Amino acid sequence: MRARVLIRPKAGILDPQGQAVERALPALGFGGVSKVHVGRLVELDVDDAAQLPAMCERLLANPLIEDYEIIENA
Amino acid sequence: MSSTAQPRYRELGLTDNEYELIVDGLGREPGDVELAMLSLMWSEHCAYKHSKKLLRRLPTEGPHVLVGPGENAGAVDVGDNIAIAFKVESHNHPSAVEPFQGAATGVGGILRDIFAVGARPIAVLDSLRFGEVGESQRSRFLLEHAVAGIGHYGNSIGVPTIGGEIYFEPSYEQNCLINAMAVGIAPHERLTSAGTAEVGQLVILFGALTGRDGIGGASVLASAELGDADDAKRPTVQIGDPFAEKKLMECSLELLDRNLLASLQDLGAAGLTSSAAEMASKSEVGLDIDVSKVPLREADMEPFEVMVSESQERMLCVVEERLIDQVLEVCEKWEVLANVIGEVTDTNLFRIYKGSELVGELPVGLLVDDCPLYDLEPEAPTTPLYVGGEQQVATDADTLTTLTALLASANIASRRPIFEQYDPVVQSRTVRRPEQADAAVLALPVLCVRTGAADERIPAIAVSIDGNGRRVAVDPRAGAAEVVYECAANLACVGAEPLGVTNCLNFGNPEKPHVAWQLSEAIDGLAQACRDLGVPVVGGNVSLYNESPDGPILPTPVIGMVGKLPDARRAGQLGFCNPGDRIALVGDFNPSRDGSEIAKLHGSAPAGALPDKDLSAIRAAHERVRQGVRNKQFSSAHDIAEGGILVAIAECCIAGGLGAIINLPEGLDPFGEDFGTAFIVSGPTEGLEGLPVIGVVGRRELVVGGVLNVAVSELSQVHGRGLSVLLS
Amino acid sequence: MKFGIIRFPGTCDDVDAQLAAARVGEAELLWHRDRDLHGVDAVVVPGGFSYGDYLRTGAIARFAPIMESVIEFAHEGGLVLGICNGFQILCECGLLPGALLVNDHLRFVFRQVQLDVVDHDTPFTRNCPPSLSIPVKHTTGRYYTPEPVQVVLRYADGHNPNGSQDDIAGVVNNAGNVFGLMPHPEHAVDALTGSTDGLTIFESIRTAVGERIRVA
User: How does DSSP assign B289-306, residue by residue?
Assistant: First the structure.
């Protein structure tokens, strides 16, 4: 099964990459942009989707600083 | 994509005459694979067809030269059985397209050149040119990403970036220059060559997978017409992977240390084609390569794509059959992919197979040696090539206003915002890093616990990289010579004598007579200056066709120089450091304003004439400074360059955080420039005997008799913030 | 005493750490695929970009075979020093609390910084003067922890190069035998480089091992 894992900075943790994008967009004329966060996307084929949360906890994300979201059948 | 009716060889950049030569040489029309290979090997980039004849004018021999031009990198002897390999190379065009990856892969490429000759890379330097960052958002973007790319590669692979230079001029707006230099160290016996393959040995490709990276012009050969739906088949920007290169480097050096290789070569421009053909040519052998044995990143690649792919982080080696298992074992240890892809033959033919099918067969000589070399038709321009910019400082401004404008200007302001993005200390050799001295200094033995014996020395090398497009534009011959003198002057300031030079010649279109003239004159100037100082050129690179509709770039020969000093503990520094030290002017300083930074701030174009030079005075000044630094007579030494004598003195004050009281010689232009001829040194009176004393170190202000009295902290702030202000 | 310095593919400051450690004792490189720590008295996890630092700094190195032995060594009270990437790895594998985030200015930074030693009562800092001049060089050095932590080093006022929480530059675990810091003490061990302050950290370790202090 094709799965996608979205990893983003945990709410409340300073996200300078997100801030940089948020500052850059208005400079290019794109107004009305807020709450930008930059994260990572991991795409993978897995036999057993039930293992995905453990994969995220142990390797793909650092739960201390990052949230993750699993999208099955991507 | 190939909708025009012209023949494909023209789309690939070959002329009718060149194609005829190919057909004559082969006795038939070339096939697709052959045409792809020939078009790259006969390109300017590989064949140097517009510059090779001129390059023969450069002196290449000297007592310290171990490896001269023609190998992946040149090398000089620094004593104690140690060789220093070094080379500078351009990555201008890829960086203009994608500055981060362009600059990163430029560093990756030059590092591979160094370990391909068996040397462990110990330093990177870079020479960069951009448009006016104060005015051009594109130039700010290019600068930011190119610097990040250089840092990303060098920092991640663990090779210190120890120096460099950056200048901003409008003519680089469309053609930024990214030149990277690398320096490596090897015991003499580990120096290796691409020219030592023997018949019957096997060819191994090791490193990264081969993809459609950088296939560029050769893509017109793609069997299918590329439509919008075929994006995946389009050639892609080369992506650098410093982690892969780190493993490749450790793996290559271990293979050489264990004496397992007959020959080694890196893959750069024109990929496998160039790398294998050069190896066959230098070894005077033939090669059979099977493209089906090359591990691919994309399964459906055509044989020609495999042969010309510029995927990064790959090496080619030749191995005796009995040693294959040991070679593969070392590769496995470093997690480096390795495959036998061919063998060395006695045919003098480069044969390409796809499995058992022969898909290309070219005489090695035709590929490597038979590309015609062209004579240029140089002609001095009759009208000015470059224009001046806006006036930024009034010509009658007072000394303080002019000095602060110069210190804050993009070309003179502190480079700290740039070099703080580079690791200068990894590998534990760095004794002088940026801001501390005019040249970087690296200890030859790594810095480790010492015996403490009185006669213990720490031999070291000094490295500098320089170029000055404005001065070369004024007078290509004299300007290019000045670059060599300035580089040598930088080395003198740390106490080093020059051993060898590498150069990168960045010019416009050489088929235009005035650019041909710039190139020809500049090479003569370089050759003369190298002869004057007794420093041979051991390698280099040429980047031509740096043009936009507005005209050519400023002619920009970049010089990298390596020198030696007997003891790192006596390496010089640039900042004033002892209150009470006297300040002296060494050398025959003959400043003028044509092509200077002050002329630029006044809005003048780089034109006019450069001051004459007294060569014996230059040699004597360099020797005096070198000895004064080595003997500890001088506490500091700094060469006078961009901005003139007052900027040089201000830089000594800023670096040392100390003031000075100065009386300039009567009638001396405080902002006129002259390069490589004169120095500001400081030290106790007894060490300055015979030199004109022009001041004393002390307090917190820079005071220049009658014209200037300013706090060093103020100068420091202006100088320190200059670049950040322009970049924000 | 003997230091063991871990070498992963992509480690850059391994030889530097070995040279620094060799100024106060023996020092040996340990390969990431081995499990044997060769009887060393202290382990250094050095700087660099282990496994390319792809995915997340330190995330992959923590699963190397040698790290299992290092974790066991630490649980038995052995002294472990993590420098820069080593600090990131020790956080990833849970030997130290917190995590390292990308610098607030998003760039790599090399800078000689001034550090305040705020805890001298550790095996790593007992020989240190109150203030140290040591270089930092990293892109991902902004320390963050949601929980209270034992701070050992802070960046001096105005010297924080990355925006770390409370100017934190180095921390120890609760047991006091695992120390991680972003600055590179191995690059401040020779007068020729401008500072020898980093050597006091290696000397502290030697003193601690010499007294056979094992904080179990």
Answer: EEGGGS-BSSTT--HHHH
- Report residue A73's pLDDT band, with 50, 70 and 90 as the boundaries: confident
- Closest-CA distance of chain B to residue C187, Å: 7
d(C-alpha B480, C-alpha B521), whole Å: 8
CA B296 from centre of chain: 31
Judging contacts by C-beta atoms under 8 Å, the chain C residues touching residue A24 are: none
Determine contact: B431 vs chain C, CB below 8 A: yes
* Among B572, B587, B538, residue whose Cα is nearest residue B55: B538
C144 touches chain A (CB under 8 A): yes
Chains that touch C (3 or more CB pairs under 8 A): A, B
pLDDT in tens, B623-664: 999 999 999 999 999 999 999 999 999 999 999 999 999 999
CA A14 to chain centre: 14
Chain C residues within 8 A of A20 when measuring between CB atoms: 106
Does B220 score more than 70 pLDDT? Answer: no
Element (H, E) at B252: helix B242-257
Give the pLDDT band (50/70/90) at residue B218: low
Q: How many CB pairs under 8 A join A and C?
A: 31
Cβ contact A59–C60 (<8 Å): yes
φ, ψ (nearest 5 deg) of residue A47 = -75, -40
Q: What is the pLDDT of residues B30-59, one digit of tens each?
A: 999 999 999 999 988 888 999 999 999 999
Those of residues 15-74 in C touching chain B at CB distance below 8 A are 15-16, 19-20, 22-23, 48-49, 51-54
C-alpha closest to that of B403 among B655, B648, B680: B648
pLDDT the model gives residue B226:
40
Instruction: Render pLDDT for B264-320 as a digit per residue (tens, 0 to 9).
Output: 999 988 899 999 999 999 999 999 999 999 999 888 899 999 999 989 999 999 999
Query: What ipTM goes with this model?
Result: 0.96
Q: For residue B656, what pLDDT is reported?
A: 97
State whether residue C190 sits within 8 Å of chain B by CB: yes
Q: Is the Cβ pair B421, C108 closer than 8 Å?
A: yes
B449–C192 C-beta distance less than 8 A: no
Q: Which residue is closest to C11 within chain B, CA to CA?
A: B158
- At residue C190, the 3 state secondary structure works out as strand
Q: For B243, which of C51, C186, C192 is closest by C-beta distance?
A: C51
Residue C184 appears among annotated catalytic residues: yes
- Which one, of C105, C107, C102, C100, lies nearest residue C181 by Cα? C100
Give the pairing of strands C42-45 and C2-7: parallel
Q: Can you tell me the distance from the alpha carbon of C134 to that of C130, in angstroms, rounded to the nearest whole number?
A: 13
pTM of the model: 0.94
Using CA atoms, how far apart are residues B557 and B480, in angstroms rounded to an integer?
7
CB–CB of C36/C2 below 8 Å?
A: no
d(CA B188, CA B82) in angstroms, rounded, equals 6
The whole-angstrom separation of Cα B129 and Cα B557 is 12
C-alpha separations of B279 from B276, B317, B323, B712, C7 in Å: 5, 9, 19, 57, 34
Q: Which of residues 138-167 of B touch C (CB under 8 A)?
A: 148, 151-152, 155-158
Residue C107 forms contact with B (CB below 8 Å): yes
All residues at 6 or more sequence positions from C69 whose CB lies less than 8 Å from its CB, including other chains: C35, C36, C37
CA dihedral B205, B210, B213, B219 (to 10 degrees): 100
Chain A: partners with 3+ C-beta pairs within 8 Å: C
Distance from CA of C215 to the nearest CA of B (A): 30
Confidence class for position B2, pLDDT limits 50, 70, 90: very low
Known active-site residue B45:
yes
